[in-house]
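Troubleshooting: if your tokenizer reports a length mismatch, compare against these two reference records.
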Amino acid sequence: MLVGVVGGNLQGVEATYLARKAGWEVMVVDRKPVVPASGLCDRFVQLDVTGEKDLGVVLGSVDLIIPALENDRALACLEQWTRNTGMPFAFDSAAYSVTSSKLKSNRLFTDLGLSMPALWPECSFPVIAKPATGSGSHGVSVFYDSKSLEKYIQKSDRNRVIQEFIPGPSYSLEVIGVPGRHVPLQVTDLEMDTAYDCKRVIAPTALSGALIPYLEKISVALADTLGLKGLMDVEVILHDNTLKVLEIDARLPSQTPTAVYWSTGFNMVEVLGELFLNPAREFSIRITPLKGVVYEHIKVLPNMLEVVGENIMTGTDTLFLLRDFFGADEAITNYRAGRDRWVATLIISDDTLETVWEKRRHVIEDIQRHFNLNLYRDLEPVANIRGYTCDQTGRRRC
């Protein structure tokens, strides 16, 4: 089967990686001539779907289209063309229109009575401000006093969300299915860098067993309310033993699907494709954590290795998949022999999380030794844990 992945950045890397794991042939389409996912696919085509009058010239040969971008105009063009041609399109525009807006999402959380961080000005400092649309850490800032916040408000547009900043561990859960049958998948743990960008995904979760069913319940309730057809993820933070919903996205996320795949063997992209290729078919899903997984991003500079958020993988040159990369099971990287500056997503797995962390320590040490990197940095948000860093084992230290 040939699947067309439209968008070659972070979501495109995720879609391409898992589609190839499903045994599918992958064509990546992007308007830019060089994108990260182009080194992972079977074919790459440079194409701006918003400017092409006949998308069938390029996309007519595929069996399924998976959008891997958040450009509203491009999504609208793809939806119109697939509707006219009958091409399966793994996308739920109605659910996406709600979840792509933090303003609409927050109203949904309120309507369902879900706990969420209080909105400004009905909260105290510190507060976090973020764009009302888009995902990731771009444009996210934390403010500790009214003077700095007022200066930000004067300079920013009104299309933003300001709410209380609450410290605590973050978790993600995907839900997949169709109206009347939504299934929660595996909870994963998220760790952030100083810019609140996710640098590391860990599975299985450290969340207590009593809270997992609650997270599954509210995630399914959100999917049911949206009438979701496809896949969505729910991100929450644990504060004072209460799970507070941060955001939801009715699209293929990046990072967590691959971590879930390595922990459980469940391929979200494969099942997502089946939902749209065979909509009447009954599907069976069973999620059982089998292995421990640490999935993280590193940046190598002369004399330093740094663990940082996934944005370092954005806009890089072509990425390739390398197996047994200094002891990591796999790496998605732009490393080439002779380079002294490169990035990589490391995927490290083993029977238990305890043995994964030990394996990871050896991976990091081997990379440092091979490239003569004396410095190691793994910082976390200062507002969250007051300046803690992590050592090579991934565990916090002062």
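Reference record two:
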Amino acid sequence: MPFNLATVDWIYVAILAVLVFISTFLGSLLSFKHSGRAAVLSALIFAGLFVFWTYYPHRIPGPRALATQKTADTPASTAPTAEPTKPATPAAPRNPVRDITPPASPAR
């Protein structure tokens, strides 16, 4: 194969397949079994669902969010960056319990 199948975003492919299935099903229902009308309706419904899924600001990560995340993870230049400064005092642990011995078992 000319490309690596491991690089394919299979979740995105599955989501698009579900959108196509829904749009084709709705298009065939609305067109009363006329194939030309069903194809046009399916294309319009898919375009609407695709735009909604890709550009609507929902909390599910989609292809647009993953693309911006990947570009944000890669550095813009290879120039060395300054090391972060260490705090003067170490941070206290959030758990106030310092004793880790197990509790005594109840008497039988």
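Descriptive notes for reference record two:
- The CA atoms of residues 54 and 62 lie 6 Å apart.
- The radius of gyration is 27 Å.
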